Amino acid sequence: MCSGEGRSVGLSAPRLTVQGSGLRRSTGSLIEACSRLARIPTASFRKPQLPQLRRWLAPLLALLALLGLTTPAAAWWEYGHQTVAEIAMSQVQPLTRADILALLKQDKKLETPTCPAHTIEQASVWPDCIKTLGDRFSYVFAWHFQDVETCKPFDTKSACANGACVSAQIARAQRMLADRKLPARDRLTALALLVHFVGDLHQPLHAVEHDNDQGGNKVKASYGAVTGTNLHSIWDGLLADRAISTAPPGPKGILSEISSEQRKALAAGTIEDWGRESWEIAKTDVYGPVEKDICAPTPKTPVVMDEATIEKEVPVLRLQIAKGGLRLARLLDEALDGDHPEVAHPPKPPKVIPVVAPTTPAS
Ligand SMILES: [Zn+2]
């Protein structure tokens, strides 16, 4: 869930550092701000992305903040993608997991040495990392989101024209991953896209558009004490980080709050259903608390996400991350293990039956 994919956005977001219970601004890194806003990865993607690194990163940041030291910003939404991927890997069938690990071992075949996909965490952010490789993968840029207008009935027809949207590409990636006749390189590419895009679909602002605001990228916003950011960036990064770090933290903590019965229920539905659900959540939980009338033009003055709203939305985003992981596990099992008979594809358009004009009897 990375912001501004395929879109032109501003570059004014500040670099952020953790301090005490909140966040404060420090001298901004233009590249990093851009990466968050324009969904362009920074060097952080090329750093080791070990889960154990993150386990002590949050307390370390808090400690440094207590000491009054500023630290580089954590890689915000990478954390979200990796958490979705880790939840999925903890839930897939053993044979599925073995298939995935075997594919990941072949990541050199991708020929993207600066964007490795040797672990599921790396694969989960690979579709962002490859944006640094220029035109080679530019065809993927528009696949991270779907701009479904908030103030019209839900309809993905124009947002998914020619399959250029996140839900259509989830279905395509799943089919390609399932096709064992394809070369490993293609199937590993499909795996990385599938893992990443399921994460994207569950960030509500990747499934919505209001007044051409580019999924909230054009909505100026403040987050607690943090000013100069935008709504998309908040949900992609700041709030995601807060949600995942809230106790009980991390993939295990998030899953621990969901019973096995609930997990089954959450994994149900189709890709179309999940996109619609994100679209609804965007209206009720993302725009709703900060814009009085979401069908009015985008506010010119920054919207305010205060602490009460942040606390209210943390469980919403934690649940979205859990859903993303559980649903991804199901899609992976369907593709690789054959354990699930149904494959979730977006509904096919109705067949158009040509109307045959009645023939006029010859007189
Ligand atoms: Zn993305």
UniProtKB/TrEMBL annotation:
Transmembrane domains' residue ranges: none
Pfam family, one: S1-P1_nuclease
CDD domains assigned to the protein according to its UniProt record, in alphabetical order: S1-P1_nuclease
Keyword terms: Disulfide bond, Endonuclease, Glycoprotein, Hydrolase, Metal-binding, Nuclease
PANTHER family registered for this protein in UniProt: ENDONUCLEASE 4
Protein name from the UniProt record: S1/P1 Nuclease
